[in-house]
Amino acid sequence: MDRLRQIGVPAAPALPAPAASTVTGAVVGLLVTALAALALAIFSAVRGTATGGGWGLLALAAILTVAVVVGTRLLAYARVLEAGTTSPRRAPASASSWSWPRSSTPSTPGGRG
């Protein structure tokens, strides 16, 4: 973030996390689709077939790596906390919002038990 400010890129407005993740998901989805189409075109031109074999697996790994890096950077630019995680920590529940179960024994159908 500081490097972006040093080169004159303005700071992004703080977006709510759901909005930022929706926009980021759309951008990264389009990027992955474009990169996959590019890989398909390259393999078709070079190998004469749309499959890449071992090189296709390498291309897939590269595309997924680019997607993760771009997604993380976009979320960080939108000032989403913990932009690089897949399961953000949640705030601990207050003592008043949780209580013990009412009964420790399971109820049986028909009221027996």
Task: Give a short overview.
With about 110 residues, the protein is an all-alpha fold. The chain is built from 3 helices and no strands.
- State the major sheet: none
Structural class label: mainly alpha
- Rounded to the nearest angstrom, the radius of gyration is 24 Å
Uncertain parts? 90-96
Q: Topology, pairings included?
A:
Elements: H1 2-6, H2 17-47, H3 54-77
Helix pairs in contact: 2-3
Describe this structure in words.
The protein has helices at 2-6, 17-47, 54-77. It is 53% helix and 0% strand. α2 (17-47) runs antiparallel to α3. It is mainly α. It has three helices and no strands.
Relevant terms:
extended, mainly alpha, single chain, 113 residues
